[in-house]
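User: Before I run my own analysis I want an independent prediction to cross-check against. Here's the chain; please return only the structure tokens and, at the end, one sentence I can use as a sanity check.
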Amino acid sequence: MKEVTQVIETVVNGEAVQREVPVRMHLTDFLRESLDLTGSHLGCEHGVCGACQVMVDNEVVRGCLTLAVQAHGKRVDTIEGLSEQGVLAQLQAAFLQHNALQCGFCSSGMLLSALELVRERPRATREEIREHISGNYCRCTGYQAIVDAIEAVLQGRFASPQEAQA
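Assistant: Structure tokens:
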């Protein structure tokens, strides 16, 4: 049986992309295999762990549950594009300052969840931070450092990216 494909046109990290993709291909697989954007990871492949998160039209989605064809006509932003644009600079600096990055497997999804929280709920409490990131699994940090980093950004207590690297 021949695999069914469809041509999609999307904007990924600010660049127009047109590709023929299998209609059952997941967005994360498309980004990783077709565009070599490997920042989002495949963990559980059931939408539970959050490692696959990307933004579609400024909304965080699970790339393992979203089909590539669903991105047709939309804007997709990955951790690579948001990092290059400087959108995540404050969060990245705070994660570095608070040692909230360990193995890195969950980091892209965790940063996107944190960005969503900072944008939507700039006065979030520690409990609200914990609740918001509860859909992202992290096996290394115990979450405390991640919550500290997000809280620091929300309260304006973080090092600049240059200070964090010093």
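Sanity check: The chain is about 35% helix and 15% strand.
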